[in-house]
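## Example record

The block below lists the input lines for one assembly entry, exactly as stored, with component labels intact.
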Amino acid sequence: MKNCIVAQSGGPTAAINASLAGVIYGALQRPEFDRVYGSLNGITGILEERFLDLTETFQKQENLDLLKVSPAMYLGSCRYKLPKLEDDQTPYAQIFKLFEKLEIGAFFYIGGNDSMDTVDKLSAYAASIDSPVRVIGVPKTIDNDLVVTDHTPGFGSAAKYVASSLREVYHDTVIYTPKSVTIVEVMGRDAGWLTAASVLAKNSYCAAPHLIYLPEAAFDTEEFIADVKTLLESCNNVIVAVSEGIRDKDGKYISASTGKVDNFGHSQLSGAGKTLEYLVQERLDVKVRSIELNILQRCASHIASKTDLEESFQEGQHGVTLAAEGKTGLMVTITRTSSDPYTVEYGSAPVCDIANGVKAVPAEWINDRGNGVTEEMAAYIRPLIQGEPEITFVDGIPSYLPVPHLVS
Amino acid sequence: MKNCIVAQSGGPTAAINASLAGVIYGALQRPEFDRVYGSLNGITGILEERFLDLTETFQKQENLDLLKVSPAMYLGSCRYKLPKLEDDQTPYAQIFKLFEKLEIGAFFYIGGNDSMDTVDKLSAYAASIDSPVRVIGVPKTIDNDLVVTDHTPGFGSAAKYVASSLREVYHDTVIYTPKSVTIVEVMGRDAGWLTAASVLAKNSYCAAPHLIYLPEAAFDTEEFIADVKTLLESCNNVIVAVSEGIRDKDGKYISASTGKVDNFGHSQLSGAGKTLEYLVQERLDVKVRSIELNILQRCASHIASKTDLEESFQEGQHGVTLAAEGKTGLMVTITRTSSDPYTVEYGSAPVCDIANGVKAVPAEWINDRGNGVTEEMAAYIRPLIQGEPEITFVDGIPSYLPVPHLVS
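Predicted structure tokens for the full assembly:
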């Protein structure tokens, strides 16, 4: 019987701890694994021998339950990228030395694209030295831009936050009679999935967001102004959802096109939302406001998607199953077996097929004008935001699992 | 038996519809009132004869329940200020003409400072023409800056959002080892109550926000940089809560002190958070980010305070009682009769005592350095954020009462 070790990496999501809970629960259930270690701050915790023994803590069901609904990363994160195997094997040797010391049989890395690159490299190194250590990737990213898998853990919760916020912004905005434009900037530098989720705010009475712009469609300033102008003729309060990564036909970020200078004389980058706010202010005679959803869209666990948390937990568990079956160099994937009713199956794919790809929004899910998304897109995202986890409030505030080892 | 009419005005809150529900419920219960009308877009709906008969809609309990938890204003808002009585009586005559036509016995105005000014003027006009119409103000403002009353409807919900968001931002931020500063800008141009609520994010493991700046304490740039620097020595991730209205010792807004110019050559105002972000970027060698909570802090009904919604409902009802008892020119007030256990009583005060006052945070609730608040402040706000309303989610999104008459 061997032990296992798990780590988290990249940007936080509301579901990455649910995957951690799944890995821990899975490992505690299986006879192949004894102790479960957690490396602090991703792979750097292994390099620096900073880790915890999670076994006792998470044998308590209440800790596991609380972990599942807690935002961001219980084990902390890192942005460390391993050197190429052919360039420098030193960190690899260091990592596997600790694995040996802790009698590690499997390493689980929960993260996005960069973490899958690490999984790829570590499993290749393991093969090269004939190590029996299994290396398995468990995906997460609010961007939903990993290839092969139907969608990624964390996306559904962020999508629920974005759509719910847009609905609330609609209620807040529609109360005034003077014409106005409200621009909501959503995360997603290269892929527009999360911005597209704003479409779910629409219902029988809520037409917002009236316009939706993704990085996948070239943004045309003149068309944007024309579209807002037309809308303002029939509607008092126009609401626009825009991805932070929108760019013009030459691929130049709209957010970078401003020439603002701060009080120290330095040029400052505005976000896409702020840039469009200035543009509307300049070109149209209406009240305009921009809202950046910022990091709350990825850490607002109090409005996470239950479906997302459940699936994230299952994916963590499935990763353990893969390792227990002796597999390595794989990332857990999810396949949608039916849309109505929504059903999924958990599987896996070689991590090398995933590590460096980016799944963009398909052109056919964006309308011809490039200012909205299709019903197919809405139907794809809708099942992912369903259900609400049970959140306990203590003293009026959502109660999450403390991260004492990371206290700041 | 007479009818009554109700309207909403000013900026939205998560609780202003709970007060509306209270007024409607109260009026439907009392024998003194028959039909309940709702004026659209505040007092302007009365001036322009745009109103609804709310009686049948809200005899249905499910509509009343849904109204109670819906953000912003079912009846829409306005920013209209009545002229001084001695300058121009035309709009007054118009308003009372509609009152006569609709056989109105009482007008309820739910709003902040400006709306209380309207209540004051209308009740004075009513007295001057010997009109029997009662005019009653029901307070609301997330700013909590109305005098006489212990606190204002809408504040508790916004405070719960601010404190919960700060806790979630802490979880999001603490995961990284490189040192960082995160600045969270909270609404409140003149009063720091809402920013002060961020203190409730602190608990046994969460030291955030490490610094809290209110408009009531002069902001000193050098002290701020020094304080952040000192904190960074012992803590990786410093989190700062700052009111949008912070100003220097000469009363000059910090948010206005930037000299940024947009791509059209126009000078742009940055918010206080953005301005501090640029300052930290310039002066300290750390990662820095600013987050503007923006309008979500006032319209995120999905995380409203149950205490706030309940009290708002009661205040609406109490307004109806006052009118039914023949009183006029009053605003409903709330008195805290005990802090532990928290108990309140509903009362009233002449609206002229309230209309033009601003309740600032008392100096003794701000620490000597001007970068934090005291335990007395926390104890004052804590009861106001307790409890969670029952929110129904439809298709993954919070379900609120449609505002079809305002469709945009």
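The longest helix of chain B spans residues 155-173. The first strand of chain B starts at residue 2 and ends at 8.
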